[in-house]
Amino acid sequence: MKVKEVADLVGISVRTLHHYDEIGLLTPEETTESGYRLYSDNNLELLQQILFFRELDLPLKQIKAIINDESFNRQEALVMHRKLLLEKRSRLDKMIATLDKTLQYTKGEITMTNKEKFEGFDFSRNPYEQEARERWGDEAVDRANAKVAGMSKDQQQAMSEEMTAIYTLLASLRHTPPQSQEAQAAIGKWYDMLNRMGSYSLEAFKGLGQMYVDDVRFTRNIDQFGEGLAVFMRDAMGAYADQNSQ
C-alpha cells in the first residue's frame, strides 16, 4: 500500500507516517525508484502496535526502544495493551460517572459530597515519572514520591483538590497577559505547591513549563481545564522564573 492509502486506512496523516520513517520507527518495506513508500502487511501490523503504545501515551523514543529490543514479543505486548486499556477504560468510566453526577449537581437535581466530586481522579499513578527522571534525575523524583507517599489519604485528597483549584484559577486567567500581576500571583501558587511536593529550582520550574507544551501528554491533560492553558502556563512559568531570579 502507498503512504496515502495507509494514512486513509488508519486515519492518521501522511506527515505522521513520513515522520515515523524519518526517525526509524516504521520503515516501509520498499521505496520505488520514483520515491513512493510501499507498506507491507508486516508494516501495518507494526503500525498497529505503535498506535496501541501511543494510546497509552508512550513517547515515540520509548516505543522505538521497546519494539527494537531483541526480547520484544508482539503477542505478549498485545496482552499487556489489553490489560492497560481495560484499566484506562475503568478509570475513564469512573470519571464520566463523576462528570454526569456533577452536571446533575450543578442543575440542583442531586447533592454531592466532596468525596464524590473527586471519584475517578487518581494521582497515585504518574505517567510522566520516567521523563521527569531523565530530565531532573532519580534523587529529585524519589524525594517527591517520598513526600507524597508520606501523606495520609486525606492529605493526598487535599493536595488533589488544591491542584484542581489552581488549574481552574489559571484557566480563568489564560486570556490575560501571562506577565500580569494576577497571572503571576496565580502561577506563584503553582510553584509553591510543586515545591511542597518536591524541590524545584526556578530553572527547573521554567523547564517544566516548556514540557507542558512540548509533550502532548501534558498538553492534553492540562488543556482539559481550558484550551490553551498549557501554553499560558508555560509563558507564565517562564516569566515567573525570570522575574524571581533577578
UniProtKB/TrEMBL annotation:
Residues 1-69 form the HTH merR-type domain. This is MerR family transcriptional regulator. The keyword Lyase does not apply. Keywords: Activator, DNA-binding, Transcription, Transcription regulation. Pfam families: MerR_1, TipAS. It comes from the Bacteria. PANTHER family: HTH-TYPE TRANSCRIPTIONAL ACTIVATOR MTA (PTHR30204:SF90), REDOX-CYCLING DRUG-SENSING TRANSCRIPTIONAL ACTIVATOR SOXR (PTHR30204). Signal peptide: none annotated.
